[in-house]
């Protein structure tokens, strides 16, 4: 394969061919999952809500005391250049920050954090998911709402990976988590919304979940369009009795959820409000990015 078919990544200030980019075998991200990541999407060359993603990264990095080695504007510039070098317009973007090379004890700190940006051509979720809705199970794994980590997008994704495997084993597409108090939190890679009697409901961050950027955009859209929406602790049986449900993340946007534990939610199809919010989300992206 010639160079022209290869991709570049951004690693600690340098643009490198992906197969030449490497990190230390002592990187704390590798050794202890000691780091954070962000996943986002670009549309027509423009990243959507990049500022919000970088702000979440910066806040979580401050919480974990991982120095962010670049200013937000430098990261924005690096991403723009990386997209240009890879000739990408509609891209999946992953930004990874780790505590970097730090041998010895399990200390916080670390003076050489690793910052990596990788981009790929965006591959949409199959259309049938949007047409029919996803199917979810409830994972056997319970979330501890007081865990300091659930609100941060850390590199510790093993519970999510195991939950996703549980879903696949039972022929479902996603797995929802319950917390130790018995309330729903989120799904393995997405936030959860329920629609009941015209109200849009989503579990509060205090239940133990990632404050999703897409979740925030959907709540904003509801406010702007006078669609009643609020945070509420939800039990699994309430979700099963909901009229509609949907999931959100930066890649899938608004994804209908039509079955839970093998039983239909509402009519077992795509609800009107879910369809409407999907359309409004797409409109918001186009308006905001001037597309
Ligand atoms: C566990 C989890 N919850 C929620 C989300 C949604 O976050 P966002 O809307 O910021 O992409 C993600 C995204 O990957 C996730 O992994």
Broad CATH class of the largest domain: Alpha Beta
Distance between the termini: 34 Å
CATH topology (fold) name of the largest domain:
D-amino Acid Aminotransferase, Chain A, domain 2
| Uncertain stretches of 5 or more adjacent residues | none
Number of domains: 2
How large is the count of helical segments? 8
Largest sheet: 9 strands, mixed
- Total strand count, please? 15
Rg, Cα atoms, Å? 20 Å
Order of helices and strands: EEHEEHHEEHEHEEEEHEHEEEH
CATH architecture of the largest domain: Alpha-Beta Barrel
Helix content: 25-40%
What's the pLDDT, averaged over the residues? 96
Bound molecules: pyridoxal-5'-phosphate
Work out the oligomeric state of the chains in this entry: single chain
CATH superfamily of the largest domain: D-amino Acid Aminotransferase, subunit A, domain 2
Approximately how much beta-strand content do the residues carry?
25-35%
Walk me through this protein's architecture.
This protein is of the alpha+beta class. The protein has two domains: 114 residues, D-amino Acid Aminotransferase, Chain A, domain 1, CATH 3.30.470.10; 163 residues, D-amino Acid Aminotransferase, Chain A, domain 2 (Alpha-Beta Barrel). It is 30% helix and 29% strand. Strands 7, 8, 9, 10, 11, 12, 13, 14 and 15 form a nine-stranded mixed sheet that branches. It has a six-stranded antiparallel sheet with strand order 2-1-6-5-3-4. Helix 6 crosses helix 8. The protein is globular, with a radius of gyration of 20 Å. It starts with 7 loop residues before the first strand and ends with a helix. The site of pyridoxal-5'-phosphate has 14 residues, from helix 6 and strand 13.
């Amino acid at each position: 394969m010639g160079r022209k078919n290869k991709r570049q990544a951004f690693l600690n200030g340098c643009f490198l061919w992906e197969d030449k980019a490497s990190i230390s075998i002592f990187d704390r991200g590798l050794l202890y999952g000691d780091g954070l990541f962000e996943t986002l999407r670009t549309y027509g060359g423009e990243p959507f809500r990049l500022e919000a993603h970088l702000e979440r990264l910066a806040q979580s990095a401050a919480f974990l005391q991982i120095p962010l080695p670049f200013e937000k504007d430098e990261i924005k510039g690096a991403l723009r250049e990386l997209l240009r070098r890879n000739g990408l317009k509609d891209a999946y973007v992953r930004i990874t920050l780790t505590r970097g090379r730090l041998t010895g004890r399990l200390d916080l700190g670390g003076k050489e954090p690793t910052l990596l940006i990788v981009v790929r051509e965006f591959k949409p979720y199959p259309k049938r998911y949007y047409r029919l809705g996803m199917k979810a199970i409830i994972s056997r794994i319970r979330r501890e709402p007081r865990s300091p980590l659930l609100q941060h997008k850390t590199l510790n994704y093993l519970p999510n990976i195991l939950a996703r495997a549980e879903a696949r084993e039972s022929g479902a597409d996603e797995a929802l988590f319950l917390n130790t108090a018995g309330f729903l939190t989120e799904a393995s890679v997405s936030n959860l919304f329920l629609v009941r009697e015209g109200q849009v409901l989503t579990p509060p961050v205090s239940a133990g979940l990632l404050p999703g950027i897409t979740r925030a955009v959907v709540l904003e859209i509801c406010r702007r369009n006078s669609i009643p929406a609020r945070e509420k602790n939800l039990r699994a049986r309430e979700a099963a009795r909901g009229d509609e449900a949907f999931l959100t993340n930066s890649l899938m946007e608004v994804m209908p959820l039509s079955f839970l534990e093998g039983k239909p939610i509402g009519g077992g199809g795509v609800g009107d409000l879910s369809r409407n919010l999907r359309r409004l989300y797409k409109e918001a992206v186009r308006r905001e990015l001037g597309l």
